[in-house]
């Protein structure tokens, strides 16, 4: 119960060590110099580490014991999945808020990083089931305006949560500079995001005469990506899903002339340029995907999303 006597509170102050309701969390955010709050409706690993921080590490009793999530710099080693061979190897990672990047090195003593990820496009989400380890984290960033996936984990759950929080803190400080007039409540949803939906569907090609192939799909905001394998580093293709005001529509079923699909529950996405055809294994999957697409299509497009749409239209 929260200190305001609300059952099942959704927020907690990790500096004062108390639970608060959603309404009170807004008040606590206005006194950030005294109280800092976090949502409890997060991954179970985050819940576990919050409890450990309070009762085992006693971070709430002494400011000096608190982890430097927002220190602006973090360095350490994580197990990273190889892009081609799928092996997990120890790699050195550095998060530098001053440089505005997250980077990793293939060798422990390497001077030049293997990859540089700009904070403005980095996202992180816990994916224990997909990765196959309790502390698995999927990091994505844009490389040449295409999504690159990196899968990492650490044996210590606290270490992985610390990296997740450090990325969120760096994103928060970047967004404060990028959107100086925005309120904290407006920025919080932009720190990191979970995918709208993931799962298998079948797809055909642009001519609609190609055979349907089973692919793993990820709906990340307005980007619908498909992969041959869920742990692929790069998508085989990406589709931009705009808004209904811009002539984007999702329909149940496939055109009557279409053949070659094995799964019977079709979906047609209509865009200004072409139709994308998919097939689901079950009616439940079909309804779930249609609901996910409809959620995105019903949202008006933001000004910056028009630039992304234009890139997809002229993509080679």
Automatic annotation (TrEMBL):
One of its GO terms (molecular function) is zinc ion binding. The keyword Ribonucleoprotein does not apply. It is found in: Cytoplasm. InterPro entries: Arf-GAP_dual-PH_domain (IPR052589), ARFGAP/RecO (IPR037278), ArfGAP_dom (IPR001164), ArfGAP_dom_sf (IPR038508), PH-like_dom_sf (IPR011993), PH1_ADAP (IPR037849), PH2_ADAP (IPR037851), PH_domain (IPR001849). Residues 71-172, 194-298 form the PH domain. One of its GO terms (cellular component) is cytoplasm. The keyword Metal-binding applies. Its main location: cytoplasm. SMART domains: ArfGap (SM00105), PH (SM00233). Residues 4-50 form the Arf-GAP domain. Keywords: Cytoplasm, GTPase activation, Metal-binding, Repeat, Zinc, Zinc-finger. This is Arf-GAP with dual PH domain-containing protein 1-like. It comes from Echeneis naucrates (Live sharksucker). The gene is LOC115047927.
């Amino acid at each position: 119960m929260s200190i305001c006597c609300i059952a099942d509170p959704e927020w907690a102050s990790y500096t004062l060590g108390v639970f608060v309701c959603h309404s009170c969390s807004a008040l606590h955010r206005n006194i950030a110099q005294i109280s800092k709050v976090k949502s409890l409706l997060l991954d179970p690993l985050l819940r576990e580490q919050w409890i450990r921080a309070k009762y085992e590490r006693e971070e709430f009793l002494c400011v000096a014991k608190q982890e430097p999530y927002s220190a602006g710099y973090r360095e350490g080693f994580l197990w990273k999945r190889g892009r081609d061979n799928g092996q997990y190897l120890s790699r050195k990672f550095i998060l530098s808020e001053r440089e505005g990047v997250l980077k990793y090195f293939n060798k422990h003593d390497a001077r030049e990083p293997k990859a540089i990820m700009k904070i403005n496009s980095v996202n992180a989400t816990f994916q224990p089931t997909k990765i196959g380890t309790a502390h698995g984290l999927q990091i994505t960033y844009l490389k040449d305006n295409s999504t690159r996936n990196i899968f990492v984990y650490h044996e210590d759950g606290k270490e992985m949560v610390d990296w997740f929080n450090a990325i969120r803190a760096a994103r928060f400080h970047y967004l404060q500079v990028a959107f100086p007039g925005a309120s904290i409540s407006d920025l919080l949803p932009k720190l990191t995001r979970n995918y709208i939906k993931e799962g298998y569907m079948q797809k055909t090609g642009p001519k609609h005469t190609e055979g349907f192939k089973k692919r793993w799909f990820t709906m990340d905001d307005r980007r619908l990506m498909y992969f041959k394998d869920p742990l692929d580093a790069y998508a085989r293709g990406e589709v931009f899903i705009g808004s209904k005001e811009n002539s984007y529509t999702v329909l149940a079923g496939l055109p009557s002339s279409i053949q070659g699909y094995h799964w019977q529950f079709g979906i047609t996405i209509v865009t200004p340029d072409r139709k994308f055809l998919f097939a689901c294994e079950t009616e439940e999957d079909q309804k779930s995907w249609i609901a996910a697409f409809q959620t995105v299509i019903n949202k008006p497009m933001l000004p910056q999303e028009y630039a992304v749409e234009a890139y997809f239209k002229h993509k080679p």
